[in-house]
Specification:
12 strands, phage-related protein like fold, six-stranded mixed sheet, 317 residues, alpha/beta, single chain
Length: 317
Amino acid sequence: MANTAFSPTNSVTTTTADKFIPDIWSDEIVAAYKKNLVLANLVMKMNFKGKKGDTVHIPAPTRGSANAKAAEAAVTLIAATESEVTVSINKHYEYSRLIEDIVEAQALNSMRNFYTSDAGYALARQVDTDLVQLGRSANGGTAGAAAYAAAYIGGDGTTAYVAANNNESALTDASIRRTIQRLDDNDTPMDNRFFLIPPSSRNTLMGLARYTEQAFVGNGNAIRTGEIGNLYGIPVFTSSNADTTSGSGAARVCLMGHKDAMVLVEQVGIRSQVQYKQEYLATLFTSDTLYGVAALRNAATVGAAKSSAMFALAVPA
């Protein structure tokens, strides 16, 4: 039987507990996450939210070719055993803070602003890191290998990069044009290409008069946040998250490719949760995301007439 005599007057309500409701936190974190993504905004993205399973199968059909039609002869049939690319949803990252009540009571609102911005940045950096490291499989290299120098060409655009020789060189106009030709030779679509460079290469480009000319860049506002300009019709982006060519970090990597070179599959987008931990007199704040990444069209060897959609160049750090 219910106790109707008990009538609470000091209940915790949505008004009194407003500081612990994470709506604003979530919005600010998602905004910070999207703002700090670089490569993830340039590649193919698939929404797997709300679906069950740990693997996504993406068909990878073989391109066919046209055949001449002879008079009074049957058409030439095309048949190919198609392959697929599998993407494992195996990357689950989180960002958590335990905020004690005394801090909640005394801290300025700027503390929350920092935490939300920092959470978005940390998770965005991790997603971009996983995508950038797929560049290890560019040019026929071995993805995930400890030493993957074979996957890269030197900054001059022609010399095969060998870690033992430390033969990376500063980015040049010739290397940019040669890499664009490699994409063209492999029949990579002209649209949706990108060029991701480390800060060292941005420094080089800003010192080249030809790069800073309006006619070369394509617009008068060349140096911008994230996208810093346009080279031969390809948007250029700078990122301090560019991968290194070996464990020693002797060289950084520039990646030129097409949107279809990689795929990002999100099963759980950025979410924020808040839980009060009475045993600590504190609030546990956590943001997390669950996703998978895979290379789609970047495993061909240099010079091969295959479907490579990404090439990498080794440049000084």
